[in-house]
Amino acid sequence: MRILVLMSDLGDSGAHRVALDRALAWHRTGDEVVVLSLVHPRPGDIPVPAGLRTVFATDVPRQLRAALPAGLARARRWAARADVVVSATEIGLGMLVATAAARAARRPVSVLVQADPTRAAEAYVPRWARGLTRAALTTATQVVCVSTGLAADLAASRRGRDTVTVLNAVRGDELAAAARRAPARAPGAPALIVGCGHLARVKGFDLLLEAVALARGMGAPPMEVVVLGEGDDRTALEEMAVRLLGAGVARFPGHVADPQSIIGTADALVVSSRWEGFGLVLAEALAGGTPCIAFDCPSGPREVLADGAFGALVAPEDVPGLARALVDHLTDPGPLRAAAARARSEAPRLFAPEVAAADHRAALARLVADRR
Predict the structure, then answer these.
(1) Residue 60 to residue 328: CA distance in whole angstroms
(2) Residues 6+ away with beta carbon under 8 Å from 258
(3) 2-165 in CATH: which number?
(4) What is the CATH number of domain 172-351?
(5) Residue 331, SS3?
(6) 279-321 pLDDT, tens per residue?
(7) Mind giving me the DSSP string for 244-265?
(8) 3 state SS of 351
(9) Could you tell me the CA-to-CA distances from 232 to 171, 201, 256 in Å, in that order?
(10) What's this model's pTM, rounded to 2 decimal places?
(11) Where are the domains of the chain?
C-alpha cells in the first residue's frame, strides 16, 4: 500500500511522535510510505526516523504561510501517487492541506484524531479556520481516533462515515529499561511530583501548582515539582510557582532528551489536564512503574488507567480532590505503586505500539479496498 502522511511541521509533540512511529511501522512491514511536511525542520523538531522518506512543501525553508500554496500543489502531486492520504493530526493547516489534496487527487483521506477537535480548535486554530477545520473533519473519508471517548464524540457529527478507534500504545520494554537506568534520588530528598506536556492552559499545570500548595497545607511530606515541556505559559507558571510554593520548589526544565530519567524516578506522575485525547504520558509512566494520578477529564485518562485500576482518578479540575490524592499517596504509596505495576501484566496492548500500527493499517487497507 502507498501511504502519504501529511504534517504541518515536525514540531516536538506527542501527536507527531505517534504519527511518525506508525508511519515507520508501516514502512517496516513493506508499505511505501512518504512523509510530507509543509515546513522544513527547525531546531528542537523531532528527527524523522531513519528509513522514512521525507519530502517538504518547498525546496528551501519558508514560513508555513509562505509555503502553503506550493505545499498544496506538491501535496496534490504526492497524493496522486498514493493509495491513501493520512493527516497526522485533527487540526492545523496540515490537515486542511491533506483533505484538500486528497479530494483533488481523488484519493481517500484518513485523519488521525489525537485530541478533541472542538476543544483543540478553540485552543490552537485561528477563528477564520475553525469552520474549515470542522467541515474537513466531518467529511473526511475516515477518522482514526486514539480513544473510544473521542470516537464516540465524533461518530454523531460524521453521520455514519467511517469512524475507527485504534488505542494509543507506548514502547513498554524500552521505557521500562530507561526507567531502570535512571539514577537513584538522594536519600531523604523531597517527594518528586512530575507533570509533562505543552505549557498551555489545556494541560492544567496551574491546577497542579494550586493542588501542591493545598496539599502542603494539609500536612503532605515535602515535595518538589518538575514540569517537563515548553510553551507560551512558561513565564506565568514560573511566577505562579514562586508565589504559591516559594522559590526552588518547582522547576520547568523544558524539553529533555530523556524524560523517562525523570518520570521513572518520580513518586507520582500527575496529569492535571482540562482535557486530553488519550494521555500518552500516563502510559509512558505506567511502563516504568511510576504511580499515576489524573483528572478524569475527557477523554483518555479513565481509559488508560482502566477506570482507576492502574492509578488514581480525580474529578475534573477538582483541586482539593487532587491535593487529597497527593496527600493520600505520599502518606501511603503502596496502593498506587501496586496499581502501576499491575498495568504491565493486565493491559499488555497498552505497551504494544506495533499492534496499534497494525490495527491502523488494517483500517487504511479497508478504506483503500472499499474505494476500488
Answers:
(1) 55
(2) 178
(3) 3.40.50.2000
(4) 3.40.50.2000
(5) helix
(6) 999 999 999 999 999 999 998 999 999 999 999 999 999 999 9
(7) HH-TTSEEEEES-S-THHHHTT
(8) helix
(9) 29, 9, 17
(10) 0.91
(11) 2-165, 172-351
